[in-house]
């Protein structure tokens, strides 16, 4: 019998960071259940360090502080905090919690005071991690990784991509990546085989053409692209040869040609309609208005909850995201939530032990019970999620949860937030045909060069 983890999966769906939407709740500072808080302030922290040394020697509990957002409303942090405390009864975790909207600002104020709290930092987005690294507020982890002979290959290349200036400031924690969703009932009715886990983008285009039918309000589109520029640029960086921060954006041209062709041929809804009507991608798929849709792994929980609540009742499936002709199956694009250590910690060894645990295979299996995807894929974690009630049955759907290579949708660049603006604006201009693709690429080259100082 499948495990009933729909509620946990639903909670996990809203917790995507970096390029994904963030949740909001009241601004609070709290501690984990049955934990003892540290005193705040540099002087108090220094005195406390001595007290904790004495406490450890006498068998009393040590206190480790960690920063989180929306701790009480999501399982992505609490599950690991509680598991670590259970494994280490001599340690109490002090949770410094803030709302998602205020997290970066609150953390920045705390770190600017060079306080010993927090010891461990969950990083909400890549841009803030780079800022903290540039200010010397994050502890480099490389020496500890080397000393413990930590195997970074378990992260499928994500750990190396987290390096900044050849230094590791964080390890992969939570992860979300792109897969292909499809409506099994529509494929069955059309007598067309389901999308496979080894399909090129060209084959995907051909499948979209086959699956387009009907007219007007009864029309079913072969596929659906939401309005995000990532739904074009992601596939251009999927093979790891490029990023969205480049001097020459001509590598984007074939992917914009593909997107415009799908739109012009009527195989997917046009950008202008989606933007003007503010149509959400979830409604398009749930209302069976498209046969396929590339979207993030977080949407799995959304669909499972929709079926659990009776909002939808059609059969759906998931496949690996299609890949370029010269790339093997298993390459995907996504975003991470890293975990790191404050440079001001007075609990370096304990903080490192917690970071290792939080980013381990053991933690991955624990988080899978809550429907949270992590930076490590294990057989147990995949089996756990695939066995959840309302997850599509079949080995192909389970295989779709795996990947072999993981490329960031945005690189670790200090100016990535500035660069997002021209990426978004040029994307819209190309998709509404206000710019030709060549004109759009020229505009990107010019504006990004100005931001980066390449002129």
TrEMBL record:
Signal peptide start-end: 1-21
Location of the protein in the cell: Cell envelope
Location of the region described as Disordered in the Swiss-Prot/TrEMBL record: 28-59
The organism's taxonomic lineage, starting at the top: Bacteria, Bacillati, Bacillota, Clostridia, Lachnospirales
Gene3D superfamilies referenced in this protein's UniProt entry, alphabetically: Periplasmic binding protein-like II
Source organism of this protein record: Hungatella hominis
Cross-referenced InterPro entries: Bact_solute-bd_prot1, SBP
Keyword Hydrolase: no
Family per similarity comment: Belongs to the bacterial solute-binding protein 1 family.
Transport found in the keyword field: yes
Full protein name: Sugar ABC transporter substrate-binding protein
UniProt entry keywords in alphabetical sequence: Signal, Transport
PANTHER family named in the record: ARABINOSE-BINDING PROTEIN-RELATED, SN-GLYCEROL-3-PHOSPHATE-BINDING PERIPLASMIC PROTEIN UGPB
Domain of life: Bacteria
CDD domains: PBP2_TMBP_like
